[in-house]
Amino acid sequence: MSLHYIPRVTQLDAVNLDEQVEELLKQQLHQATKYLEPGILQPILPELELLIRSWIFKYSICNNRSTFGQQMLSLSYKKDNFARSKLFWYYGYTVGLKYLKERATYSFTSNTKIQNFFHTLETFQVVGDVLNFLRFVQSGRHPVLVDFILRLEMSADKLTREDLTDFSWTRELLWHNFIELIGTVISLMNLIGVRKRLSCVLKLMWWRWHSASAPGAAAASMDVNTLCAYCSSRPVLPHTMGCSHVFCYYCVKANKDADEDFPCPKCYYQGKEIKRFVIAAS
């Protein structure tokens, strides 16, 4: 009798085992060819990895309707909804797309259009993986995106691990995958853009009060004790932005380029124009 509920941790374990099986085969290939002359296998490396992934697909999904990781944990896809036509889509998504991207990286390095196309495609795929993982955490079904796209259902005759009720172990695995999710999301974020939008919100809530109580534009002055208002060091190429404080040119210029509403960190004056500070001759 098959089990209708499969713990999320078991499904994530199967995905991790599949990745480890592929890496293990790649390591075996590298060990077997490490004494060859350097550069011989480099031009055909995408084809070698294609053969490895095709071999894994043939003797796992194609023959048994389950990956090697799933077989280790007594899991499998339900064969009644895994038609032969879905095999081709599964192979194209999990094997074909990786090969095309790797071959394009090796053969069309200088072709900007092709590189941008695959970069955009990879970005959409990563975003899809992130959204699918969030859905999986909630529903407990389809741990990888291709399973959700093809509507592949998983079944299990038994649970091979007896410690699945150990909640600390469950939390550890889910937390590990959640940390990877956060790292992926951060890598896709435009931090400067987020900082700029956050600054706009803060100005309405907090900076407005400081700006109201801050003095207006005043003449800047500089002596031997003057420090940059941003880096607190001796000003290099002194510049001002309309208030009485002096900045290094690169400090104020870099911040203004990143955020045109950058305020003086000392008095919160929002100058729109930076000018070179000229010391008047006495």
UniProtKB/TrEMBL annotation:
<protein>
    <recommendedName>
        <fullName>RING-type E3 ubiquitin transferase (cysteine targeting)</fullName>
        <ecNumber>2.3.2.36</ecNumber>
    </recommendedName>
</protein>
<keyword id="KW-0576">Peroxisome</keyword>
<feature type="domain" description="RING-type">
    <location>
        <begin position="228"/>
        <end position="267"/>
    </location>
</feature>
<keyword id="KW-0808">Transferase</keyword>
<keyword id="KW-0472">Membrane</keyword>
<dbReference type="Pfam" id="PF04757">
    <property type="entry name" value="Pex2_Pex12"/>
</dbReference>
<keyword id="KW-0862">Zinc</keyword>
<comment type="similarity">
    <text>Belongs to the pex2/pex10/pex12 family.</text>
</comment>
<keyword id="KW-0813">Transport</keyword>
<keyword id="KW-0653">Protein transport</keyword>
<dbReference type="InterPro" id="IPR006845">
    <property type="entry name" value="Pex_N"/>
</dbReference>
<dbReference type="GO" id="GO:0016558">
    <property type="term" value="P:protein import into peroxisome matrix"/>
</dbReference>
<dbReference type="InterPro" id="IPR025654">
    <property type="entry name" value="PEX2/10"/>
</dbReference>
<dbReference type="GO" id="GO:0008270">
    <property type="term" value="F:zinc ion binding"/>
</dbReference>
<dbReference type="InterPro" id="IPR013083">
    <property type="entry name" value="Znf_RING/FYVE/PHD"/>
</dbReference>
<dbReference type="GO" id="GO:0005778">
    <property type="term" value="C:peroxisomal membrane"/>
</dbReference>
<keyword id="KW-0812">Transmembrane</keyword>
<dbReference type="GO" id="GO:0061630">
    <property type="term" value="F:ubiquitin protein ligase activity"/>
</dbReference>
<keyword id="KW-0863">Zinc-finger</keyword>
<dbReference type="InterPro" id="IPR001841">
    <property type="entry name" value="Znf_RING"/>
</dbReference>
<keyword id="KW-1133">Transmembrane helix</keyword>
<keyword id="KW-0479">Metal-binding</keyword>
<dbReference type="InterPro" id="IPR017907">
    <property type="entry name" value="Znf_RING_CS"/>
</dbReference>
<keyword id="KW-0833">Ubl conjugation pathway</keyword>
<comment type="pathway">
    <text>Protein modification; protein ubiquitination.</text>
</comment>
